[in-house]
Amino acid sequence: MDTSIFFPLIQNAALLLALVFLYDAIPKKNQRQHFVLWRIGIGFLIAAIGVTIMSTPWMYEPGIIFDTRSVLLGVSGLFFGGVSTAVAIIVTSLYRLTIGGSAAWIGIGVIITSGLIGIIWRKFRKYQLASISAREIFTFAYVVHLAMLAWFLLLPGDSAWQVLQKISLPVLTVYPIATWLLSRLLSRRYELERDEQIRLQDDFLFRSQFDVGNIGIAITSPEQVWIKVNPRLCKMLKYTEDELLNLSWKQLTHPEDVEADLVNFELMLAGKIDNYEMDKRFIAKDESIVYTHMMVACQRSHNGVQLVIAGFLDVTAQTLADSEVLASREQLELVLSSSELGLWDWDIKRDLIERNARSADILGCDINELNANSRLWMDAILAEDRPKVLHSIEAHIRGETPQHRMEYRLNTFEGKVRWILDTGKVVSRDANNNALRMCGTYTDITDSKLIEESLKLSALVYENSSEAMSVLDERGVIITVNAAFCEITGYKAEEVVGEHIRIMYCDLNGHDFYTNMNASIRETGEWQGEMWQRRRNKEEYVIWLTINTIKDKDGLPFRRVALFSDITDKKQSEHLIWKQANYDTLTGLPNRRMLLEYLSAEIKHSDRNRNHFALLFLDLDYFKEVNDTLGHAMGDLLLIETAARLKACVRDTDVVARLGGDEFTVVLSAMVDHKGIERVAEHILRSLAEPFELGEETAYISASIGITLYPDDATSIEGLLKHADQAMYAAKDQGRNRFNYFTASMQEYARYRMRLIQDLRMALTNNEFVLHFQPIVTLANGCVSKAEALLRWHHPERGQVSPAEFIPIAEDTGLIVEIGNWVFEQAARQSAQWRETLGVEIQISVNKSPIQFRDEGALLNNWLELLQDLDITGSGVCVEITEGLLLDASMGVTEKLLAYRDAGVQVSLDDFGTGYSSLAYLKKFDIDYLKIDQSFTRNVDSDENDQTLCEAIIMMAHKLGMKVIAEGVETQAQRQVLLDAGCDYGQGYLFAKPLTADEFAKRYIKPCTDNTSATV
Asked: Taking Cα atoms as reference points, which of 905, 903, 816 lies closest to residue 854?
């Protein structure tokens, strides 16, 4: 570190602080009226300061200079905001560009970064700038200048290190101090502006209250001489301002209040109290008495009172009203003492309530106890009624209702509940219409309430029943109906009373229905059941009807009572539930449940008529691609259109069903021969092969169809579905877009496959798997430092099972994940064992299936932890993947390949050239090796095209920084051609077949010319 840097930087910072004083010299008038122009002007001033300090920098070398522009622009963004700072950034950036040099763009980056950090910081701290702490300023400064130093990392490696080593300490020492000093100057300006604003607000509030307030205000001397009075006080006392100023405080005070006022005034002058309040009477100019509530305070200086200020609230109206109420209350007590009314009188201002003896009797308590606790009555009101009572009182006090009137229940001290009618009214308000006093009465209405409720009960049951009720005479004429009857039928009561009930009849019931119903009523006096009925608007609906008969004293029918409810929605809901349970909600086709019921019925029908039917099992080809590329919404549209096309391909007597996903079935009933079945299948294939217009998109799919016959192929539903499914998969295996009949060989293969899956599940547990290793040879010198791990399965009964036979099954069943994990772990441990016991690092390549990428879950982390535990890096294990895996973004390939790279594991791209080769993907992913597929290697010595392709692949891979491995090398001629083309490694039977670990170690793990591998 060169300490000589400090002085130039301190000089530059001092120049910055000196120039900033120019900001205080600029007039601040009219800045709000011309806000944008003001901000732009400030921006140019900041830019000018920036240009000045940039003119006197400390120069590291030509083109690399240091000055305090980052301090200026960071503080500008923090205190002046976006407009000013943007102007300053543009001007200073242009100036830095004219200076030029190798670090010109870094200097511009420092300018922009410093300003942006300040602007962003201001966004969150704009309203705390006046009181911003030194700690926060230093934090802000270090953020800005660490970002500044980070820009110099863009210099070439050695230059960046030398610059940062020389300048970091001076910059992080001088610049934060300069930032703090500059921020303190500006925050002090903010603080002064804030204090001035507060002072102006206080002055404005006092003046507005003094001149136009509703309180009389007077300023007097300690001798009680009026110095200044406001208009409100003059109006209260009926004097002009000049007249009041010529009178003393004592002259206007009522004689009876003078002594009490003087006592408090003297205590305040003596310093024993700072202020006091009291009710005081004044004598106005017209000799009337003005009642006031007076508040007096003083201003002291040097332990003496300089001024006294007093506020006077006019309470004359309230005081006179209280006197009137007190006088009338005594008279009212005499009247009410002999009545059954409880009386309450509420002094709202003091929140005191007085009640009479009758109120105490109603509550069942002592009168003194009741008046001593004003909350006693309110607390006795039932909790559910209390909010309504309080709301009613508050609404009346606010003037929203002419009186308070509420019925509620009261819990008495005797444990009973009584109904109370509570009425009240405000009897006194002040000049501002604020309620001062409210009076009211309590009436015990318990007895009348019980009678009223008893009378209402029967009517409530009848009128508020959700069931329609009607009373008929013995001939069926309607006498009365309830509200539910009118609501359900649409008739008004006056329209049906006096009419015969047959006006409600509906033809859907039929003549015999009414004949049977009436016969039952005549014989038993009652009837119950479903029936259709017609509303007034002719709409038909379903009801559940119950009819009972009331007989007279002679046992003859007197009245018929009919009760019914509308069950139309219930019936529709039942139908909807049935439909949802039996039909696919998307396509409207029968679902699996409905299909099974239909197949059961169709089997019985076929057995009875000795005919045949066919079951077609369809699976849409490429539907997943449509879903993945166009989205599930478009996939749903395609399924709906597919259902429509399938229905158009069959007869009305045939059934099309959707089993789920993209699987459909078609049942062709009463089929005579195969020609009809094949004609329908071909029609379906042609129809589904036509383009699907999905909004603005067009999709192309096909179908694979499996066909099974009843009773030829199976005699049960399960057998038919299973055989049709097997035939469908056979159609897919044959190339899709075709149909295939079920055969006995399919069933045999299915059984074989099922047994193989069962054995495969036990293979790991029974240790039936073993790894063989095929060497990967360096073509230039024949050394072996790599090998590919190949899985072999020795079945205890079948013997050796080919990987081509069991690997696809393992992928279909998901067992490949568990098996692949075992292979990886064994390969990693084998590599570590060879390194520890034989001292040679052999890189083992492990094939990884796309299914593992999709379903491995947390196994990736387990693999990486295993490699870490075994201390294995890229020289120990290599993961082989296929080209198609790179195209599937849904598996998170990028993230997993990056995880391998971070762990030091190398990646090899297997079978290159046979899949969807893409240079874009080779550039995007970190691939270490390309493996040329053996289909190119096989004829590389005899086919010029294969030779040209191999040479192109090798050249491309080397340009991209990848090594090349050729698979399937079987002759010396092939090896020589590949070596001449620049291929790095070879693998094949020319060198060795896959070997056991012991055989591989004996043959290849021995010292080589470079002491790293054995030689072939």
From this structure: 816
Which of 850, 826, 617 has the alpha carbon at shortest distance from 726? Answer: 617
d(CA 913, CA 923): 16
Of the candidates 609, 605, 580, 607, the one whose C-alpha atom is nearest the C-alpha of residue 594 is 580
Q: For residue 461, what pLDDT is reported?
A: 61
Q: Which H or E run includes 928?
A: none
Question: Could you give the CA distance from residue 684 to residue 689 in angstroms, rounded to a whole number?
Answer: 8
Distance separating alpha carbons of residues 174 and 13, to the nearest angstrom: 8
Cα–Cα distance measured from residue 833 to residue 854, given in angstroms and rounded to the nearest whole number: 30
Tell me if 975 sits within 8 A of 995, measured CB to CB.
no
DSSP-derived secondary structure letter, 507: G
Query: What is the overall mean pLDDT for the chain?
Result: 81
Nearest-angstrom CA–CA distance, 2 and 61 = 14
Element holding 268 (H helix, E strand): helix 255-269
- Are the beta carbons of 401 and 392 closer than 8 angstroms? yes
Residue type, 302: H
In order of 493, 564, 902, the CA distances from 471 in angstroms are: 12, 12, 88
Tokens of 483: 């509200």
| pLDDT of amino acid 19 | 47
What lies within 8 Å, CB to CB, of 345 at 6+ separation is: 325, 329, 353, 354, 355, 437, 438, 439
Model confidence pLDDT, tens digit, residues 428-477: 888 888 888 999 988 888 888 777 776 666 556 666 666 888 888 888 88
In the beta sheet, which residues pair with residue 276? 296
Strand order in the sheet with 613-621: 655-660, 663-668, 613-621, 702-710, 738-741
Phi, psi of 563 (to 5 degrees): -120, 130
Task: Could you list the beta-strand ranges (E) of 622-744.
Answer: 655-660, 663-668, 692-694, 697-699, 702-710, 738-741
Average pLDDT over residues 539-560: 84
| Of 973, 994, 965, the residue nearest 777 (C-alpha) | 965
In tens, the pLDDT along 597-648 reads 898 888 888 888 888 898 999 999 988 888 888 888 899 999 999 999 999 9
Cα 153 to Cα 336: distance, rounded to the nearest angstrom? 97
CA 510 from centroid of its chain's CA atoms: 58
E strand or H helix at 250: helix 249-252
Give Cα separations from 113 to 73, 145, 147, 321, 677 (angstroms). 9, 10, 7, 74, 75
> What are the distances in angstroms from CA 620 to CA 616, 641, 682, 688, 706?
13, 12, 15, 9, 12
Tokens of 164: 């940062």
- What is the DSSP secondary-structure string of 432-478? T--EEEEEEEEEE-HHHHHHHHHHHHHHHHHHS-SSEEEEEETTSBE
Q: Which residues contact 374 (CB under 8 A, 6 or more apart)?
A: 351, 352, 353
With beta carbons less than 8 A apart as the criterion, state whether 367 and 355 touch.
yes
- 850 by Cβ neighbours in 10 Å (0-12 / 13-18 / 19+) ranks as middle
Interatomic CA distance for residues 139 and 17, integer angstroms: 20
Sign of CA dihedral 121, 124, 128, 134: negative
- Three-state secondary structure string covering 15-56: HHHHHHHHHHHCCCCCCCCCHHHHHHHHHHHHHHHHHHHHCC
Q: Is 552 helix (H, G, I), strand (E, B) or coil?
A: coil
Tokens of 668: 């062709």
